[in-house]
Design brief:
heterodimer, A: alpha/beta, four-stranded antiparallel β-sheet, 10 strands, B: alpha+beta, 9 helices, 4 strands, 8% strand
Chain lengths: 222, 293
């Protein structure tokens, strides 16, 4: 699913955001990436979605070579990825239902199919009663649920969540991580970055990368 | 794929416009004003041009002839005038008819004509002509034997033609400047929407949305903005220009009423779609120039 060989990232100002690393991430896995702010977690995720291009090495995500690709194939790759953001990035002025459908509107699927998938996922994240509510009126926790529903409604092969609990209290953070973990399946891999290591002190079921000053270190492999 | 997204696009336009409420409103009024000025300007020039053309069509030339000509020679001159290219009709006006006309014109001052021992009026030929062939016709008249004097009101007609040209030139210049201003304002509104929606656009890009999907609301926004503005300006201009038209005709009695309805239909058929297309073009321009998308 993700293959990295000597991948590194140096920003134009000379900052080495990520030092050369090798990594293999397979199907149906759950990965946590921890590390302090500025350690390169977000840059790592940005490379996975083609938002930044590695300056060295070979990075393949869902069989797409990030370094050698064009705008069109990046777009196709992103349609197979579900991104979740720390600041939710819900579309204000639109309803919960619309926010979830947005990622499917430009895909070749019918309106019925689109609505059906949106309703299913709303049930799964526990927001079916708020389908017609404007996202502007939701709490932070609910907004993040909408973000997760939007990311997962297309049944993506990869879900990448960048500090999804960053703006949430402890209880909501735990619920959000549980929800994200529930999307791991034989077809879907979930990668979550967080600096809140206390939230992921579980003995099994996930793999862990620790990042510090651009160094990537696989701490635990299951 | 486009049809299922119509509701989303329209809602998105609403969100974009409401995000910069005051700016959108002011731009909207500016565009209405610009279209209003353009419509008033073009309609005024159209009215002027039509009136000038009608005055030119009704213009007559008086041809005076040598009074020593024998009646046979006068008849020959009459026939010769009918043959001149550009002349549409020739009519003989007697000295008595000329006297009566002047008497009518002078009205209560007509008694001054009684002071003359002999009639000061001479018989002449009155011709109507095709205004476009005026120059060649006047040239040809120089070669016609027996003509002593031609009163052609040339100066007045030339001035009217010049006035029409100046008005056309000015309205063309002002009209183009106004449309460029409209283009810039619409582009500015669209760009403002793009910048204000930067995070939204970025999110859509990360979800893999193609450019057409991201751009469509902005393109429709520009077309709607100019289309609705043009429609309102059109609606407001009709009563204004109709009352100006009636006022001018009532004040300058010899000006005929024009068929304004034809002009309004032309505006609706060509002006409004043009405004819509201009809106599309300015949106397209604003989407192509910044790197924010």
């Amino acid at each position: 699913m993700i293959e990295a060989q000597k991948v590194e990232l140096i920003y134009p100002d000379g900052t080495q955001a990520i030092k050369p690393f090798d990594l293999t991430i397979g199907k149906g896995e759950l990965w946590y990436i921890t590390g302090p702010s500025g350690s390169g977690k977000t840059s790592f995720l940005k490379m996975l979605v083609g938002e930044v291009i590695p300056t060295g090495g070979i990075l393949s995500v869902l069989k797409t070579h990030i370094s050698e690709t064009n705008g069109k194939s990046i777009r196709r790759l992103r349609q197979d990825i579900g991104p979740v953001f720390q600041d939710f990035r819900v579309l204000e002025g639109h309803t919960v239902f619309e926010n979830i459908r947005i990622g499917m509107r430009f895909l070749k699927i019918s309106r019925t199919e689109m609505n059906q998938s949106a309703m299913e996922i709303l049930g799964r994240v526990g927001l079916e009663h708020k389908a017609n509510t404007l996202v502007d009126h939701l709490s932070w926790g609910e907004r993040q649920r909408v973000g997760i529903a939007r990311a997962s409604v297309r049944k993506p092969k990869l879900i990448v969540a960048d500090e999804p609990t960053g703006n949430l209290d402890h209880d909501n953070a735990v619920k959000i991580l549980d929800l994200l973990e529930s999307f791991v399946s034989s077809e879907t891999t979930v990668i979550i970055t967080t600096h809140a290591t206390h939230l992921i002190e579980k003995p099994f079921g996930h793999q862990l990368i620790h990042m510090d000053l651009g160094n990537i270190k696989v701490e635990r492999e299951v | 794929m486009g049809l299922k997204n119509t509701g989303y696009f329209l809602n998105e336009i609403r969100v974009i416009l409401l995000k910069n409420k005051m700016s959108s409103l002011l731009s909207f009024f500016s565009i209405i004003l610009i279209f209003g000025i353009v419509i008033v300007l073009v309609t005024s020039v159209w009215m002027l041009s039509n009136w000038v053309s009608k005055i030119q069509d009704e213009a007559e030339i008086s041809i005076f002839y040598d009074q020593s000509l024998e009646p046979v020679e006068v008849d020959a001159l009459f026939k010769a005038l009918q043959e001149v290219s550009g002349i549409e009709s020739v009519r003989s006006v007697t000295a008595d008819e000329a006297h009566d006309r002047m008497s009518n014109l002078l009205d209560d001052q007509a008694h001054v004509l009684l002071l003359f021992d002999e009639t000061p009026f001479e018989p002449f030929f009155e011709i109507t002509f095709n205004f476009d062939h005026r120059e060649t016709m006047l040239l040809a008249l120089k070669d016609v034997h027996g003509i002593s004097y031609i009163r052609d009101n040339r100066e007045i007609l030339d001035r009217l033609a010049d006035l029409e040209k100046v008005a056309e030139g000015m309205s063309l210049g002002i009209g183009i400047a106004m449309l460029v201003a409209m283009f810039i304002i619409t582009s500015h509104v669209i760009r403002e929407g793009i910048v204000g929606n930067y995070e939204h656009i970025k999110t859509l890009k990360l979800l893999g949305a193609p450019d057409w999907f991201i751009n469509t609301p902005y393109v429709i926004e520009g077309a709607i903005l100019t289309g609705i503005s043009a429609l309102i300006a059109y609606g407001l201009s009709i009563p204004i220009m109709e009352s100006i038209h009636r006022g001018v005709v009532e004040t300058v009695v010899f000006l005929p009423l024009l068929e304004m309805n034809k002009l309004w239909i032309k505006w609706a058929l060509y002006g409004l779609p043009t405004a819509f297309v201009l809106g599309l073009l300015s949106s397209y321009f604003s989407l192509k120039t910044p790197k924010t998308t």
